[in-house]
Write a structure and sequence with these properties.
- It is built from 4 helices and 16 strands.
- By secondary structure, the protein is α/β, with parallel strands linked by helices.
- Helix 1 links the parallel strand 1 and strand 2.
- Helix 1 packs parallel to helix 3.
- It binds flavin-adenine dinucleotide (FAD).
- Flavin-adenine dinucleotide (FAD) binds next to helix 1 and strand 13.
Length: 275
């Protein structure tokens, strides 16, 4: 939109959405401006509290952190608190109609971690909410970003980036949209933005004893490719220290109420021999 945008001392940058994309953007920006000796204000607008337990704090993410993301964490000089880490994954075990295959971490010296992205399951609530996204957002805050727990209603680009938040307007030198795909889109009348195509997912957490998880699954994520489904549609079972996390892609809309029960949408693949 704006070519050759150059941030100068005193600039204000707005970040709409404090999920991983917004927090990482803010953390890198703060690092670069500090290296350049610039004083730039970063404001993050995050409407939802990640620390709330159950579906309100959870966004349905399976929570596996890739090697690249862990590299980013290292580059930023961050350390993920142990209580946020649910398990260390060594292999993926893939089940398809053609057989079973195991793919193991080619760099065992570099962990693949599973974490809670939101507040944690409501039914067997941990002593304190566990949330990787909350950890990242708080780090951005600790390093200088200001976080507003508010929803941005509208984003105007011309004549200058302007956010409408509640009844007020805030003016910035730059605005970054990092709102993800799970909330109502921000109204952006200046721009021709088409929402990304999405696929509905469902996720459940089943409580299980640590020793059973270790005995039956160890540190392997089980991936079930559903016969007749698209390549991206698969069910997963992720071993955690306190149970199993089970996300799955779903081609059909899921009724709101159906999301509450265990195995809500797994019925479709329940007849599959591996399950
Ligand atoms: C079932 C499932 C499993 C997944 N598994 C994995 C996995 O194992 N590993 C992995 O790396 N990724 C996984 N992902 C993907 C991962 O969740 C996303 O890539 C990641 O969350 C995207 O981050 P984001 O910051 O772009 O968006 P989000 O995480 O959606 O964050 C955007 C934030 O912006 C806020 N927001 C939106 N609009 C506004 C507004 N107008 N005003 C204020 N705040 C606003 C929202 O509240 C939200 O918190 C999975 C996703 C799903 C659905």
């Amino acid at each position: 939109m704006v070519k050759d945008l150059k941030l100068e001392a005193g600039c204000r940058v707005a970040v709409v959405g404090g999920g991983p994309a917004g927090s990482f953007f803010a953390l890198y920006l703060l690092q670069y401006v500090r290296e350049a000796g610039l004083d730039v204000k970063v404001h993050i607008y995050q409407e939802r509290a990640f620390s709330r337990l159950g579906p309100r704090g959870c966004k349905g993410c399976a929570g596996i952190l890739s090697g690249t993301l862990l590299q980013n964490i290292k580059e930023l000089g961050l350390a993920i608190p142990e209580e946020v880490i649910q398990s260390r994954i060594t292999c993926y075990r893939l089940y398809s109609a053609n057989g079973i295959m195991e793919v193991c971490n080619p760099q065992p010296e570099q962990d693949i971690l599973s974490v809670y992205r939101g507040g944690g399951p409501r039914l067997y609530a941990p002593a304190a909410p566990i949330s990787f996204d909350d950890f990242l957002l708080k780090e951005a805050q600790r390093r200088g970003a200001t976080v507003f727990p508010q929803r941005v209603r509208r984003l105007l680009v011309y004549p200058r980036p302007t956010l409408e938040v509640g009844q007020r307007k805030e003016y910035y030198e730059a605005a970054v949209l990092a709102g993800g795909v799970n909330t109502l889109p921000v109204d952006m009348p200046d721009l021709d933005v088409r929402p990304a195509a999405t696929l509905q997912m469902v996720q459940d957490e089943l409580h299980a004893r640590r020793e059973d998880i270790q005995a039956y699954l160890g540190t392997k994520v089980q991936v079930f490719f559903i016969p007749g489904a698209n390549a991206g549609e698969a069910g997963h079972a992720l071993p955690l220290s306190s149970g199993l996390r089970m996300p799955a892609a779903h081609r059909h809309p899921v009724r709101e109420g159906a999301l509450r029960g265990p195995f809500c949408s797994y019925r479709r693949c329940a007849g599959y021999p591996f399950l």
